[in-house]
Amino acid sequence: MRQHPTPDTDDGAPGEADLEQLLRTGPFHLALRAALQLRGLPLQRVRHHLAGRGITVGVTSLSYWQQGARRPQRPESLRAVRELEDVLRLPAESLIRLLVAEGAGADGERPQGRSYRALVEASGSVEMLLAELESPVDGGLHTVGHHERVRIGPDRELVGRDSQHVVRAHRDGVDRYLAVHHGDPGCDPSRVAVRAGENCRTGRVRWHRETGLVVAEMLFDARLRAGDTYFFEYGFEDGTGGPCVEYLRGFSFAGGQYLLQVRFDERALPVRCRRFAQSSAGAPRAARQDLTLSGRHGTVHFVEQGVRPGILGVDWDWD
């Protein structure tokens, strides 16, 4: 994961070099915060400056923007950001460019992926299904490495995904892994097929229609002792949801390497792909990075060497 620089100088205040770096790399809220601190403008004074230019923005909104709690997205908010660039003596379009790179379009809209509410509801449903299967949250396993391949079909739908997984047991007697699939809006989890691959077989399967969730037991061919590692493969065949604009995976615990590859059908290629990270479902997306689409195979990928608790994923624009 690319680490964003934190504005810092010997006296704890940002310098011009820190601000210039943040204006190049983002994220937006840290760049805005550094500019406000460097120019020595309190939010009340900024609000007054904007009002003099015919723009009404509350101090609370400005505070949320610099904290990363909210992002300016509406047209009037984006107009305020452009005026902020002038008030704070920043290069034209410097803050707007960061917003665009982080997912806001010129009209203030960002790709319609999973909402915070959807992620929270899905999290609650996962916990309910895990409890039904009498499994602890981590299942007694730590991830050593996980290679995940996601397939997007000609109608822009998530056709399926395949996983190659290496785990290490941290207690004796572990003999299964619970795999979770979260379909896109419109997904019919009753029609999602679970596929067991090498070194495992399918056990119990539970699903939750309202959130499009499927939880499946992958039963190992051996009972592990603490410290044992195990390699297995599994997948889900979906194709029941609407157009897919992102794929993300949540991690409750730190782990090893994670590789995510997304393959697009040659008849439906996106115009832009980006990786992202979130510290939680409600946090702003950070660590934005454009990904190059392979013209020959229609794939993008990224590798995270040391997974931290949070969310990692890829989103894309269709046109």
CATH topology of the largest domain: Immunoglobulin-like
User: Which structural class do the helices and strands define?
Assistant: alpha+beta
| DSSP helix fraction | 10-25%
**Series of H and E elements:** HHHHHHHEEEEEEEEEEEEE
Description of the molecule:
The chain has 7 helices and 13 strands. It is of the alpha+beta class and 319 residues long. Strand 5 and strand 6 form a beta hairpin. It is elongated and about 70 Å long. Mean pLDDT is 84; it is low at 1-12 and 104-112.
Compact description:
Helix content is 25%, strand content 34%.
Topology:
Blueprint: H1 16-25, H2 28-39, H3 43-52, H4 59-67, H5 75-87, H6 94-101, H7 116-132, E1 141-152, E2 158-169, E3 174-182, E4 193-196, E5 200-208, E6 213-224, E7 229-237, E8 246-251, E9 257-264, E10 272-278, E11 286-291, E12 299-304, E13 310-317
Parallel strand pairs: 1-9
Antiparallel strand pairs: 1-2, 2-7, 3-6, 4-7, 5-6, 8-13, 9-12, 10-11, 10-13
List keywords for this structure.
alpha+beta; four-stranded antiparallel sheet; Immunoglobulin-like; six-stranded mixed sheet; 319 residues; 434 Repressor (Amino-terminal Domain)
